[in-house]
Design a protein that fits this description.
18 strands; binds zinc ion; alpha/beta; TIM Barrel; Urease, subunit C, domain 1
Length: 495
């Protein structure tokens, strides 16, 4: 006798506007059919009248560790955010790592995101225990995640040529003391974590995130590639996010960052390039030829003032796969995939007066679901409502004002939904959110734990905060200088 649990979702509408019932068997969609679809006896019925059913959004790029650092800064460039990174999670205890991941997961599921690629940072290096705690945070909420330890063997200040030398002696000595762990230690920790991983890999799995090309020695990247191949996991790195990075890359490698990674043998179908704002046509061709994914994070790009990626050129120029991400709570700022999806669509319009060059609503939703899913390594499993796919389903409340009246489902989801219409969220066939409440988490307790941890961290970070504030004008000025150097592509408007 089969013990499969059946659920039938009745009376909902799909994104094409059609009424449909969905039969879920265990964790997957078994059948989608006309209203009145036959279901096995004993199947649990969920009433989806006045609701639109869409695939869960997939966040292609975020950093769960930053969820405790909301409101960290205002006019911060990417480089100033990196300068302030000691204030994000450097002092985390093991329980803080679990808590930060859980908080991020709760925020995401409440706004209709059912899976994410989390580049979680541990200081000074990843640990199997830390990664397990982060994974458990997601597992306890019931959200799907790829957890990739963010790694480097150079500090931010060491990675930018000339930066430390430009600082007054006392400050230079302070930042020079901050050294990253050797690559061997990080790789060994990842190897152990990959071997010992005990969480269901269909739900939460590991990947590797050597953070930024010039923050890591070439040998570090090669070691990541070997480890990724050995364990069949992905690699995710920030590639040409800012003009500063593009300029530094060209100076250091004599070629673009993408060409450098390609020549090192890092690009592959399991590789995600986050941002890819300052990439040229050859870079796009290389990424596409290797079957890689770009994680486009328009909210973050706007917030950090790094310019806007030319996504349309990526999709057209050789069919590069593009997913959409929010990036971190310190730069997106909400982990809201509806917002990211809408911005991805609207900012595509700054590059050309010809509407044929802009992204369509359909393309935006495709990137935020199937595109991101491919980046996470879940291609064909999540990102669509179809038989055989995991039952990761968002129920949107059609009584909300954004759907009054309902004229075009896809357009109204992309252009008008802000997450407030999310009523229920199902992941792996189980309701995680019902009537806008996360069922798997005691929210009051989570709130108390977050406030308590944050109060402690603020005290512990006082000295670090003083140093960050002293460095800020100097680092800012030096990096703006680099950003004013000529580069062969331009991603600023009106520059
Ligand atoms: Zn990032």
């Amino acid at each position: 006798m089969s013990s499969t649990r059946f659920t039938v979702i009745r009376g909902g509408r799909l994104l094409d506007g059609e009424a449909a019932d969905i039969l879920v068997a265990g964790d997957a969609i078994k059948e989608i059919g006309l209203p009145g679809l036959a279901a096995p006896e004993g199947a649990e019925a969920i009433d989806a009248a006045d609701m639109m059913l869409m695939p869960g959004l997939v966040n292609a790029h975020t950093h769960g560790d930053a969820s405790l650092a909301k409101g960290l800064g205002d006019r911060l460039s990417l480089e100033l955010l990196l300068n302030a990174s000691p204030l994000t999670s450097e002092r985390f205890r093991l329980e803080d790592k679990y808590l930060a991941a859980k908080l991020a997961a709760v925020e995401m599921v409440l706004s209709g995101c059912t899976a994410c690629y989390d580049l979680f940072s541990e200081f000074p290096a990843p640990s199997p225990e830390g990664l397990a705690a982060v994974g458990q945070g997601y597992a306890d909420v019931g959200m799907r995640a790829v957890v990739a330890p963010l790694m480097a063997d150079r500090s931010f200040w060491q990675a930018i040529p000339g930066l430390i030398g430009s600082l007054p002696d006392a400050l230079a000595a302070e930042v020079d003391r901050v050294t990253a762990e050797p690559a061997e230690a990080s790789i060994a920790a990842c190897r152990r974590a990959l071997k010992e991983w005990s969480i269901d890999r269909d739900r939460v799995r590991l990947a590797l995130a050597p953070t930024i090309p010039h923050h890591c020695e070439d040998s570090f990247f090669r070691a990541c590639r070997e480890l990724a191949d050995e364990f069949g996991v992905g690699i995710h790195s920030h590639v040409a996010e800012s003009k500063v990075q593009a300029v530094v890359g060209m100076r250091k490698y004599g070629k673009t960052l993408t060409a450098h990674l390609d020549d090192l043998g890092i690009l592959a179908p399991d590789f995600t390039a986050a941002h890819a704002v300052w990439v040229d046509d050859d870079d796009i061709r290389r990424l596409a030829d290797q079957g890689a994914t770009v994680a486009h994070n328009p909210t973050s790009n706007l917030r950090l003032g790094v310019g806007i990626a030319r996504v349309r050129g990526m999709i057209d120029g050789g069919g590069l796969n593009v997913g959409i991400g929010t990036d971190a709570s310190t730069c997106s700022d909400g982990l809201n995939m509806f917002e990211a999806m809408r911005l991805a669509n609207t900012v595509s319009r700054i590059h050309s007066p010809d509407p044929a060059d802009w992204l369509s609503a359909e393309q935006a939703i495709e990137m935020a679901t199937r595109g991101s899913a491919r980046g996470l390594g879940f291609d064909g499993l999540i990102g669509a409502l179809a038989p055989g796919f995991k039952a990761d389903i968002v129920f949107l409340d059609l009584n909300r004002i954004q759907y009054l009246p309902l004229n075009h489902a896809v357009r109204q989801v992309v252009f008008q939904e802000n997450g407030s219409g999310v009523k229920h969220v199902m992941i792996d066939g189980r309701l995680i959110v019902r009537n806008r409440r996360v069922l798997t988490v005691d929210y009051a307790r989570l709130r108390d734990e977050v406030v308590c941890a944050n109060d402690r961290l603020r005290l512990e970070n006082e000295d670090a905060a003083r140093l960050v504030r002293q460095l800020e004008p100097l680092v800012g000025q030096f990096c703006v200088g680099l950003a004013k150097e000529p580069y062969h592509v331009n991603r600023y408007v009106g520059a």
